[in-house]
Amino acid sequence: MEHAEFNKDLLKFLNASPTPWHAVATMKARLDAAGFEELDEKEDWSLGQNRGYYVIRNGSSIVAFRTGTEDTALSGIRMVGAHTDSPCLKVKPNPELRRKGYFQLGVEVYGGVLMNPWFDRDLALAGRVTFVDGRDTVRDVLVDFSKPVAFIPSLAIHLDREANSNRTVNPQTDLPPVLMQVPEDDTTSFDSLLSQQIASETGGKVRKILGYELGFYDAQEAGYVGLRNEFIASARLDNLLSCYIGLRALLDTSGDEAALLVCNDHEEVGSVSSEGAQGPFLNAVLDRWCGAGKAKAVARSMMISADNAHGVHPNYMDKHDENHGPVLNQGPVIKVNHNQRYATNSRSAAVYRHISDELGLPHQTFVVRSDMACGSTIGPLTAASLGVTTLDIGVPQFGMHSIRELIGAEDGHTLFRVLREFMQRKQIF
């Protein structure tokens, strides 16, 4: 089946992308293989018609686009947005902790981490390191230890009798992972361990570590779950799933219509950065692509912000509005919030529903309970920045922001089929 091949490639993408930098590197490799040309923001651009291009900022955000066969001022642009980052535990700048012969690292909580599931998991470590090489040149390199190197052991219930009824997690004192045992006089530095890893991965010499952005991640690979393989379990489904879906949709379009994918970093911490959705990255790309016709192009464009949705949990059904409880494997979820936590309006929702109905594919709708706060996405930020008609949608999932999340095995492919059609549709409205 087509969706089986889609999911097989999805698992490969997830396993290759433990950090935003690795996710962008994975997308870059696929774009290169498809004939897309990389653009440098420091240089002049000369864009041709019916061509594919991409721009990377900070190594962790990417904008990829097809120019189409017409002037964007007349055709508009079919945009899809997602984000590359996920909640995790990031290593502090001076992280070494030595206690009773155990070597640990201090960590900072990145984003809205669901902390309890991080205990008693096999943890790997990956990210970006900046260093001085053997030629006294400052370089960036991606590292991935690619195996379990750390563990955050729970305190035994015998020492915490209220663990099952009243457990709280102090991120400063409870979360430093254990990496190894060392003698009392050990002076091993984390920088030296990083230097060894870089040398192992690249074969190059490291004179000095200058900085790093590293995060722990679940070493268990993505895979199927369920007696009938109805589900997919993985780390970082929020929101690498949408990055993958958007990338596949862009690569599989006809190329006749102007289409764009933006995958921003830092969504989980508010998107306020040079490469985040509240930063200037997308606007800068559109300025250089569309030129004086940008305002007209945007007026004819639409953005679909793809970010996962909360599926109704069978053990906690009262956490959803009784008429808006999305079920896994019953279609992507149109997300509505009239207080503008989601950017969906009746017009943008109608575009998606119409395409989905034409393809004979299911879709659902989510509205948060009226007595609960609503999360948000890059959708409202992009809509406000560009003034573009925007839809918020996502695949329903369980365990959002946990170290391991769960989706239905059919929903990703369903969203892909609709986004592919959206990206190559001549008339949006």
From TrEMBL:
Alphabetically sorted, this entry's keywords are: Aminopeptidase, Hydrolase, Metal-binding, Metalloprotease, Protease, Zinc
Enzyme Commission number, as recorded: 3.4.11.-
Q: Which residues form a coiled coil?
A: none
The Gene Ontology biological process annotation of the record reads: proteolysis
Write out the GO cellular component annotations.
Answer: cytoplasm
Q: What is the protein named?
A: M18 family aminopeptidase
**EC supergroup of this enzyme:** hydrolase
State the needed cofactors, names only. Zn(2+)
- Entries under InterPro entries matching the protein: Peptidase_M18, Peptidase_M18_dom2
The family assignment reads: Belongs to the peptidase M18 family.
Superkingdom of the organism of origin: Bacteria
The terms under GO molecular function for this entry are: aminopeptidase activity; metallopeptidase activity; zinc ion binding
Position of the signal peptide? none
Per the UniProt record, the source organism is Marinobacter adhaerens
